[in-house]
Q: What sequence folds into this?
């Protein structure tokens, strides 16, 4: 049974705008926020309004002790983090105690690792939350077209192809996104992230109608960490890559700064379509 939300919220902050939005949403809901800024990823200057500390990723013991001392039980993980090599972590005493409980999942894909981390946090007495429990206003709730422009038949076929590809790589815990143009898979997302994938796809685009970015959750993904996220920068990167639109998962994608994101799409003539990837209408094309 889920526990009622209340009391101070702990925020483990990586890079980008999402941690700032999460903190602001929690404060707007009347919650105190205590921020652990991950060294090398989050920016301490962005969190001067909140009690915060800066920790390297290997200092899990210090992080959890500080959060406990602040009376934190509810936690959210937000923001971009590039996975370090295991040898570079230099775990403190507290982290060294936790590592054996993560076990072999430390060497699997990102979702496998994050699920193990979430479980360890629960065992340590914390309550990791889903993004929508803290910042529901950033989630796309229902399927539908978010922009004036929409996909034509070629783009629809590319979306279906992209969904098939993302299901396949997601099942192997590799990535959440793919770029497809005229049925050709130009790029799939791996450890480099969406922006780097889009830059690579732009160098591979073909003449004719531009491609689409498909970005959805991995099959069975834990919703408490690393949900698909787009924002204005994603749209601009997609436009620079020559794409015509983005297909994202309804009730599974965070849109940072929706007004600016949609404005960027409209200004560049791109569509943004929220869909249910499990709807039979989006079954992969035959053959």
A:
């Amino acid at each position: 049974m889920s526990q009622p939300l209340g009391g101070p919220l702990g925020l483990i902050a990586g890079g980008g705008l999402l941690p700032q939005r999460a903190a602001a949403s929690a404060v707007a809901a009347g919650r105190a926020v205590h921020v652990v800024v991950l060294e090398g990823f989050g920016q301490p200057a962005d969190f001067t309004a909140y009690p915060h500390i800066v920790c390297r990723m290997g200092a899990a013991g210090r992080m959890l002790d500080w959060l406990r001392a602040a009376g934190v039980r509810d936690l959210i993980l937000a923001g971009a983090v590039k996975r370090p090599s295991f040898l570079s972590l230099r775990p403190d005493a507290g982290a060294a105690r936790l590592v054996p409980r993560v076990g072999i999942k430390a060497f699997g894909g990102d979702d496998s690792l994050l699920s193990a981390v979430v479980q360890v946090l629960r065992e340590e007495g914390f309550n990791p939350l889903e993004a929508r429990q803290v910042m529901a206003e950033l989630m796309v709730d229902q399927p539908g077209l978010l922009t004036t422009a929409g996909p034509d038949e070629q783009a629809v076929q590319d979306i279906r192809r992209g969904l098939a590809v993302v299901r396949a790589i997601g099942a192997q815990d590799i990535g959440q996104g793919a770029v497809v143009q005229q049925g050709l898979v130009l790029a799939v997302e791996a450890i480099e992230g969406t922006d780097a994938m889009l830059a690579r796809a732009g160098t591979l685009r073909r003449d004719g109608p531009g491609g689409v970015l498909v970005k959805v959750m991995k099959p069975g993904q834990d919703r408490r960490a690393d949900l698909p996220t787009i924002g204005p920068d994603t749209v601009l990167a997609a436009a620079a890559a020559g794409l015509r639109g983005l297909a994202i998962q309804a009730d599974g994608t965070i849109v940072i700064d929706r007004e600016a994101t949609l404005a960027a799409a409209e200004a560049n003539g791109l569509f943004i379509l929220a869909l249910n990837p499990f709807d039979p209408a989006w079954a992969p094309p035959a053959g």
